[in-house]
Design a protein that fits this description.
Blueprint lengths: L8 H17 L6 H12 L6 H7 L5 H13 L3 E4 L7 E4 L8 E5 L5 E4 L3 H17 L10 E4 L6
Parallel strand pairs: 3-5
Antiparallel strand pairs: 1-2, 3-4
Length: 154
């Protein structure tokens, strides 16, 4: 598996328990279809569009995927990455996986997850905290989406 958490069963089991708890807190159940969506997102190293999800799990109804992604997003289980293409892309919420940023192609809309070296991440975090402080704002976390052109679109 080339996904976000590798193949460790205990990590996956813990993740599914956490997700079930978040859904329960939102008054929702962790249904088989929702677990299928989580498994699809977990298996990938980048955010997916709904059509990409449906290619990977053709047995899922498109309307069910839309509906369940909305529920999962509201419960804080998935995040939507907005690009300039007609489709948003979905990934597991960062606090369930690992901190990362996105390279978003303004040509084709492809999104690539990237992790910064610790030194760079620390510098950015400190700068953002200072920016927040000088604006009377407390920074709790950050996300960076870097826009440009992928190799295929250059």
């Amino acid at each position: 598996m080339r996904g976000l958490l590798g193949t460790l069963p205990d990590v996956s089991a813990d993740l599914h328990r956490t997700i079930a708890g978040r859904l329960r807190d939102d008054g929702q159940r962790y249904t088989a279809n929702r677990r299928e969506l989580i498994d699809v997102l977990l298996a990938e190293a980048h955010p997916l569009t709904i059509p990409e999800i449906l290619v990977r799990r053709a047995e899922l109804a498109q309307s069910s995927v839309y509906r369940n992604l909305t529920v999962l997003e509201r419960a804080g289980v998935v995040s939507k990455v907005v690009t300039n293409s007609e489709w948003g892309r979905y990934e597991l919420a960062e606090d369930l996986t690992r901190h990362h940023h996105h390279l978003i192609c303004t040509g084709c809309g492809v999104v690539k997850d990237v992790e910064l070296p610790d030194r760079v991440e620390s510098s950015i975090s400190a700068s953002l905290v200072e920016l927040g402080r000088s604006s009377g704002f407390t920074i709790e976390e950050h996300r960076l989406d870097l826009l440009g052109r992928c190799e295929a679109c250059t």
